[in-house]
Structures are given as structure tokens and as C-alpha cells.
Amino acid sequence: MSISHDSLFRALIDDVGRAGVLIRDYLPEIISSRLGDEPPVLLDGTFVDPALKASQSDRLFSVALRDGGWALLYILFEHKSAPDPFIVLQLLGYRREIWRRYAGTSAGKALSLPLIIPLVFYHGRQEWKVPLSITECIDADQELQEFMSGMGYILCDLGHIPDNELASDAEVCAGLLPLKHVYRGTDPEILLQTILPRLTDGTHLEEQVIRYMIRLFPAITSELLTRVARRVKPHREGELISLAAKEWLRQGEEAGFARGKEFGIAEGEELGVSKGVVKAKIDSILVTLETRFGSVPGDMEAQIRRSAPELLDDLFKRALTAASLELVFTSDNRH
Asked: What is the pLDDT of residues 120-164, one digit of tens each?
């Protein structure tokens, strides 16, 4: 899958400004009130062993504290539909590895470890019932559990947060909304109508949101997207449809490869891959033309469907840029 839950969440937190919004919005007051005004610093993975990283959406930030100190904030996006009972052990392992790499061979550093605050975002179908600390996982009575250190984490269960309270920033909220509603049967037209006006035009986040929703909200059609775009972002209608058309094209290519595997590699390249890709390209061209110019004449549709496969990429580009239907096929552009 070329677009995933991870990809959208990464688009949110890889921008330190948006990451700062999420950090301040979701940390408890006892922690957020101690943060300095400086934006968080995204660390390059020096402290995290790649072999331990189970998710490409894990991120480690350094945050300044008002008293002049600093802390590490580890953000994990848990995108499984059900909570993972091993999450507490996973986070404990990450903490240990981060501290080990921080300390190195320095006894002084080993005795003065930075505070690590795990922040877990979850948007799955099932209620989160996994304990929030390693202490709660210890098979012992309460008195003995309290003897152990907490080593907990903070859960941000998107499903229990009202839409308008997901984030204090409108654009961050727009990135979280599709993650919250992907398993909840929400009307995609209403969701798109809410999300699109909050996204900055032409950004990587806007692209990821559109691709995510095309992938994971199957009810979104070219007609639905066109209708919503004309209503809330008429100046972006063409660009949004182009983004969607490219994603539908990618889906067709993937379907072609998957179909091809059923026949074996050699036959798949000829049967599954070729047919799946060609059909997806033709469909994307027609969707783009219908969105930009209205109904496509039957003779033009037939001409597109008869076009040689090697000409379809160029035809798709002209469908996106031609000033009129008549200019999609011109004598200068024929091959």
C-alpha cells in the first residue's frame, strides 16, 4: 500500500511546528506547563536502534524545559485496529535503548539520564484496555506494585476526543480527523467538507490527506470529491482531482501486479500487470477529463480506450494540462 496510516501521521509530526502543537495539546498540564517556548527538535535517530523500531512513524524529539533542563519525548503511532498488549514492554525496550545510547560509556551520564516521555497515539476500533505503565503489568498486590517505579506512558485515544478538540491548530486537526474516523463509518463527504478548508493549499500534508482518504475511504468517488471541492475549495478543484486521479492510478498498478502474481512472474507481466495498469491509466484519464470539462464525447472515449499503452502516460499529462477537450488530441500531439 503506497499510502498508509504511518505516512499520514509522519506528515503531521515531521514538521516541528505541527509536532509542537500535538505535544502541547496532548501532554498533561503538569508536563506541558514546564516546557520552554522553543519548538521541539526532531532527533535523527542516533539514540534509537533501527532494529527495535517496529513502526516508521516512531519519532524522538528533544524538548526544552523552563528551568533550563531538557527532556526526550518519544512519539509512537499505534495504528493497529486493536491495542497491542506488548506495547508496554516495547516502550520499556525503547527507553532502555535510548538511555543506553545516550550514556555510552560515561558513568556520569548513566547516573544523570534524561527524562523520556512516551506519547502513544491510537485510533483503532477496539477500546484501549492495555495498562498505561509497566507497574500495572506486574503480577503482584497493590502494595508491591507501588514499590515499583511507574514507567508509564500517556495515551491519546483519538476515538474518545471530540472532533473540534483533536488539536488547537486547524491544520493539525485536519490531519488527525481521517485517522480518527477511518474505522468509524463516518460519511466521507461530510468529513472531506470539514477537512479540506483547514489544509494549506499545495502542501505535503494536503497530498497525504487526499491520498489517505482515497485509499481508505472507498466511498469517495471522483463525483463526490468534485462536489465537495467546488463547494469548499473551488480554486483547488483541478489540483485535488489530479491528486486523486494519480492515487487511483497507483491503486490500479498495484492491483495489476497483485493479479500478475497469480499467473507467475512471466505470465503476470504480460497478463495481470499490463491489463491492470492499462485499465487504471485509462480510467484516470477519463476521470480527469470528466472533472475538468464535463461529459467526454463517446468518440473521444473510444479513442482513448484504443490508444497504445505506451502513449497513455503522455495522454494523462495532457488531460491534466490541456486548455480544452479539443486540445487533448491534436495533430501536433498525435504519434
From this structure: 999 988 899 998 888 888 888 877 767 766 678 889 999 999 999
Q: For 29-67, how does the pLDDT look when each residue is reduced to its tens digit (9 = 90+)? A: 999 999 999 999 998 655 555 554 544 568 899 999 999
Q: How far apart are CA 40 and CA 137, in angstroms?
A: 31
**Amino acid in position 248:** W
Amino acid letter for position 50 = P
Set of cell numbers at residue 187: 460519511
Task: Please tell me the pTM assigned to this model.
Answer: 0.73
C-alpha dihedral sign at 209, 211, 213, 216: negative
CA 302 to chain centre: 37
In the chain, DSSP assigns E strands to 41-42, 59-64, 70-78, 115-122, 154-157
Whole-angstrom distance, CA of residue 58 vs CA of residue 56: 6
Residue 66 main-chain phi, psi, to 5 deg: -65, -25
Neighbours of 146 (CB within 10 A): 11
Pick from 244, 242, 267, 243: which is nearest to 256 by CA? 267
DSSP letters spanning 120-135 = EEE--SS---S-SBSG
pLDDT for the residue numbered 47: 58
